[in-house]
Amino acid sequence: MILATASATALVSTVATASAQDTATATQGGEGTVYTGDMIEGKKVIRALDVNDLEPGRHHFYFEGVQRVGGQHWYNAVVVVKGAKPGKCVALTSGVHGDEMNPIHCIQTVLDQLDPSAMAGTVLAVLDISRPAIEGMTRRWPDTGRGIDLVDMNRWWPGNENGPNAVSRHAWLVFNKLLRPNANYALDFHTAATGMDATAFHLADMTNPEVKAMAELFPIDQIFDDPQYPTLLANALIAAGIPALTPEIGTPRRLDFDMIALFVEGTMNVLRLHGLISGPMGRTGKDSEVFIGDTMGASISTHGGFLHLLVDLNDRVEAGQKVAIQRNAFGEVVAEYTSPVSGEVGARRTDASVEPGTPFLFYLIQGSSTPVADYPE
To answer: Tens digits of per-residue pLDDT, 289-319?
Structure first.
């Protein structure tokens, strides 16, 4: 994937330097808020945002993203809640993967609790970043450049204005026209992938003091202390000087209101930390006795068949412990699986059927001396 991307990008640069977008969107951020003059459902359409241009209060926009095959654009819902007093800007993002519903509702709930007249600073929310994936309830963006490719948008940040697919170009627009020019801090909300369930956890680089301070303010189960891929949105933001982390709100495709409430509480704590709102802190990771691991391991199927998992989320397992039994269509046992590591269960497969090579359990490991390869998402 990386090699193919590099060669395709080089090819693009030899053919043309102009973006496929209108030239008005091809300039760097910082030009102020740019309105297209269009309205969609009573909401103004923008090509770029500068929250300093806005009056205090609540603002709803459609952001003009990458073009579709027919020449129309994909549009993202953008909400800005600007306080009566100046202060920091915290960005909240969701929908980088299209099967992640909890993050959208979490951000909507946070926004509903904000009173601009009592705020110092700004909350910027971009709720449905990967629009075509969301509309298809699929994790990956269905890119049509080479037939139909399902492209993981969270491997393309910060994007490329002249990139080899629509995903990279849309990522560039969102990153450079909305997020980077405005945000001082950011939370990019996700869930497990379709077919999996997960604990309430963060993916966070805890070696970054500002990231660590935010991550510990959530009353959740686990934190995976690992930056993972540099092309994740949170890591691209950190590289741009914007402390960010990736809260992971459990299961995909449906709303888990109990788990959402934990992340709403933590997000409000982050806004208090940065002075946007006042009042006492809610519960934090100290209250939930959050488990912080620095390595992730996985159990991966060796056969096709139907899994009976013997462990649940947050269970403590030991290396060699039996964790699953697998049967074929005749009901014959074809495999029994043991945990390759000692740790806590962080995610488990919810689909009973698997093919060979399918990860079905993920384990969060604390202080492991045995190297484990990056977990296969």
So the answer is: 999 999 999 999 999 999 999 999 999 999 9
The continuous run of DSSP H or E covering 293 comes out as strand 291-293
Task: Please tell me the predicted confidence (pLDDT) of residue 368.
Answer: 65
Interior CA angle at 329 toward 99 and 350, to 5°? 25
Residues in the chain where the model's pLDDT stays below 70: 1-30, 368-377
Report the greatest alpha carbon distance in the chain: 68
Q: How many residues does the chain have?
A: 377
Phi, psi of 232 (to 5 degrees): -65, 150
Which residues is 80 bridged to in the sheet? Answer: 59, 124
pLDDT the model gives residue 5: 33
Three-class DSSP category at 362: strand
Dist. CA 306–CA 329, nearest whole Å? 8
Question: pTM here?
Answer: 0.90
| Residue tagged 């923008």 (tokens) | 46
Rounded CA separation 154/5 (Å): 14
Question: Residues 280, 208, 361, 1: is their CA dihedral positive or negative?
Answer: positive
- Residue 222 pairs in a beta bridge with 201, 291
Beta strand 359-365 with 353-354: parallel, antiparallel or unpaired?
unpaired
Amino acid of residue 283: R
